[in-house]
Amino acid sequence: MVYYLLLTIMIPHSVHERYEKLKKAIDRYRYAEHVLDRHLISPAALDSLKHELTLLEEEYPSIITSDSPSQRVAGKPLPAFKKVKHEVPQWSFNDCFNEEELLSFEERVLRILRGSDSSSKRPTYTAELKIDGLKVVLTYEKGVLAVAATRGDGIVGEDVTLNVKTIESVPLRLKKDIDIIVEGEIWMNKEGLKELNRARAKAGEPLFANPRNAAAGSIRQLDPKVAASRKLDSYIYDVARSEAGIPDTQTEELAFLRDLGFKVNAHYAHCKSISEVSAFWREWKKKADKQSYLIDGIVIKVDEKRSQEILGYTGKAPRFAIAYKFPAEQTTTVLEDIVMQVGRTGIITPVAVLRPVSVAGSTVSRATLHNEDEIKRLDVRIGDTVIMQKAGDVIPDIVGVVKELRPREAKSFRFPRRVAACGGDGRIERVSGEAAWRCVNKKSLAQLKRKLYHFAGKHAFDIEHLGPKNIDLLMEHNLIANFDDIFTLKVGDLASLPRFAEKSAENLIKAIDARRAISLPRFLVSLSIPNVGEETAEDLAGYFGTLERIENASEEELVGIYGIGEIVGRSVFAWFREHENKELVKRLLRHVHVRKTEKTGKLPLAGLSFVFTGTLSIPRDDAKKKIKALGGDVNSSVSKNTSYCVAGENPGSKYDEAKKLGVKIIDESGFANILESA
């Protein structure tokens, strides 16, 4: 007792406070999701909060209280359904998020098995896909489905028998007349979710955020006809109790379930070692997106049932199994500071400095906050626990704040009026009508560096081996100070630099020489003209054809070009009127040849416009380049003038807008046919 009290006293007050706030926040979100079917936070973000709670409890075991979310499985059943007491308690799995935690799981398994009277033979494992759906418990009497229940709180669930009977893949009678209780997952495929959400949008109803919520919302319908219309499916993966006995291994159990007539997911593996488990996880991390159902990880179980019995259960989860999650695209972490970053055109971007966290497979410690208006909209403050997301190669982005965890001392953030990286007195200004603040001084070192990064980057000159680190090195040794300096470099200039051996120096010079001819659009992009991105550069090049015509164009002519507009037109006109910029272009033209842009009127896709939505199997930039090379246009939004809406996987709101406006919608195969014909 004295030892326990000492442990309690040794826990810092800040840890106690964080722990209590975590419990309250998790309980709120869990209640909304599991009881009310309301999605207040993404599953990935909630998993992150629960994982943080678990880590605190592992570090400070005496802090655990009976009301901790880690001590129960899920929420209470809805009162509209008949309550069902489970004959066999329903457990949830503990989660792991990286290989280190997976190895810790194996160490615990081996330690317990070594301490038992069991054989010294190492256990093997079964790895199964973790389908993102709603858990169901099916009770069969003499081979006939008697009761289907949700997991509920693990002890009491909800009777959803009539709804489950509408699912074609759930057998009403088994191939053997036995008494058995099985467990599995009810799920909705991705296409079914799209169809359901389109119908709900038309009816003015809130959309389901993911297949798990859609399956839960469908199986909890009081009218079985509604559930029947939702195209639900099932996978059964476990025997809880059987009068015919339970097979000796998990692998044999899956075969036993299939023989009884259940639908069993075919993608599982018997792994002889934990390294084989890791290989299975890596394989399915790559393949998961291509399946019709959502997979958020794998479930690993000790294969041998005798070893499972020895390992047993904790208060809430089996010791013989664990869920190994795929990297989340959303997670939670603490915002430790907000710093100002100066862009190549002098725009100030607020950047969140985060407590390092793993998301989408990489460790992230910074995320953009975009601008002052976004900080105010989010009401984000230093010390807040934030929801951060990173999809694919997109820059990490903060999308929400868990305000229940806000420290008492947190104050609203005030945008600074001076930023040292701007140089000089550091003054910044907000241009009327714009969200961004900019440096008053246009020639700061930070801006120059970013301009050089951009100049050599993939959307401009695309010079191999000339990334930010090498540009910094060249600037530090006074070898480059402006764009044209890059083309004056020689192998001998680089030989004495750190990290530059003779071969690497030769490779860089060859890469620079390979870019001494460039298209007009890429050249315009490279100059960092305010408001001129890739699409605008294409429009300017297509209209004028040559750099000389753009340089000499009047403001009225620039403003009057379709797709350019007043702000961009004035910006281009002003840039080419500045003496310093004129001289820069002259110096560059001594080293590079800017190719003319041919008029696109006679090209096969001239006059056609395309809009992309969803995920394509090829990079979207490549698809855009192919269209533009054939004379077509690519727009960012759908209008009645759009020729084609190209819909990949998981299309967004542009798909619905195209349908509403009667724009022709094609899939990736149809798009490929158009390109081939052109």
Give a description of the structure.
This protein has 5 domains: 2-71, Helix Hairpins (Orthogonal Bundle); 83-325, D-amino Acid Aminotransferase, Chain A, domain 1, CATH 3.30.470.30; 330-437, OB fold (Dihydrolipoamide Acetyltransferase, E2P), CATH 2.40.50.140; 445-595, 5' to 3' exonuclease, C-terminal subdomain (DNA polymerase, domain 1, Orthogonal Bundle), CATH 1.10.150; 609-677, Rossmann fold. Helices cover 37% and strands 20% of the residues. Strands 12, 13, 14, 15, 16, 17 and 18 form a 7-stranded antiparallel sheet that branches. The chain has a 5-stranded mixed sheet with strand order 2-11-10-3-9. It has a 4-stranded antiparallel sheet with strand order 5-4-7-8. Helix 2 (13-34) runs antiparallel to helix 3 and helix 17 crosses helix 18. The radius of gyration is 30 Å and the shape is globular.
Q: Mean pLDDT score, rounded?
A: 85
Strand content: 15-25%
CATH architecture of the largest domain: 2-Layer Sandwich
Q: Would you identify the regions where 5 or more consecutive residues have pLDDT less than 50?
A: 1-6
Q: What summary fits the major beta sheet?
A: 7 strands, antiparallel
What is the count of structural domains? 5
CATH class of the largest domain: Alpha Beta
Query: Total helix count?
Result: 25
Distance between the termini: 81 Å
CATH topology of the largest domain: D-amino Acid Aminotransferase, Chain A, domain 1
Structural class, judged by helices and strands? alpha+beta
CATH superfamily of the largest domain: DNA ligase/mRNA capping enzyme
